[in-house]
Amino acid sequence: MNKEEIIVQISTGGYLEHKVTHEAVCGKLMQLLGTIAVSKVIIGWSCSRELYEHVTGFLRQRGIECYLWLPVFSETGVLKADTGKLVDDTGTEAESYCLTEGENFEFYCPDQQRNITSFLQIYEEHFDGLGFDGVFLDKIRYGSFSNGLGGVFSCFCPACMKRYQECGIDVDELKHQMGLVRDGAGGYGEQVLGITAYDKGNYTFAHPVWEKFYRKKAEVVLALTALRRSLNAAEYALKCFIEVLVSIGSLQHITKKLTRQYKEAFGLHHILTGSLCIFVR
């Protein structure tokens, strides 16, 4: 990727938002193109085919690639009823978070096949055949602290519980430690998640169950190669890019490895690395 590459990322609002018009988008792009050399545009994710038909055509005439911006494990419930939300350690569905109008930051379990199926159905029903050069996959992850502790202490749905047991995670002890965090007991009032050290991307936890838990979550997300295969299938022929978000619970010491494996498994590139990205909302 060219280190001088400039990418413009445009928010059109959530799936049901239709306030952004193609005239407004193309008008802003014209202003930018008059002063800087843009190589790619990422845009999404309102369900407005007319908007994208005009924008992709506008960019194609100028030799600029256009990528559809789509959330994978968030926002899906706006359009699909059959979704499985994240379940926290108390058995409660993780909180949604109103980041901005039209974006509810509601997260769904990456380990439930129906959530992957629902995402692919949304693409097929609303965005297929619009002439995009590829798709920019966002929110391929679990919730974060923005969703409260439940967003980080998840997921405990039946599918995830089975995985934890299969890989030898003591679920009872894990829930016990999470309960101590919630109560500010057991030394957790002074140390976030009992993190005792950090060195060159490596976290050390006071209790080993935390590392096992977050490592397993990272492996679940990494295993989603079927998503890339589906989008790169002949009927789509889409290039796939991914946004990698590393939270405190994602264990940064395996992030470089995961990012490398993502590229190998998904055929993806982190489209924002080494590039200047101008965000337009």
Describe the protein in words.
With 281 residues, this protein is α/β, with parallel strands linked by helices. The chain is 35% helix and 15% strand. It is built from 9 helices and 8 strands. It has helices at 22-33, 49-61, 113-126, 149-152, 158-166, 171-183, 209-222, 225-231, 255-266, and strands at 6-11, 40-44, 65-71, 134-138, 195-199, 202-205, 239-242, 276-280. It has a 6-stranded parallel beta sheet. Strand 2 (40-44), helix 2 and strand 3 (65-71) form a beta-alpha-beta unit. It is elongated and about 60 Å long.
Essential attributes:
281 residues; alpha/beta; six-stranded parallel sheet; two-stranded antiparallel sheet; 8 strands; 35% helix
Number of helices: 9
Shape, principal axes of CA atoms: elongated
Poorly predicted sequence stretches spanning 5 or more consecutive residues? 242-277
Approximately what portion of the residues adopt beta-strand conformation? 5-15%
Helix content: 25-40%
Coarse structural class: alpha/beta
Task: Characterize the largest beta sheet: strand count, sense, and whether it forms a barrel.
Answer: 6 strands, parallel
For the terminal residues, how far apart are their CA atoms?
25 Å
| Topology pattern, helix = H, strand = E | EHEHEHEHHHEEHHEHE
Oligomer: single chain
| Estimated radius of gyration | 20 Å
Biggest sheet: strands side by side, in what order? 7-4-3-2-1-8
Total strands: 8
Mean pLDDT: 79
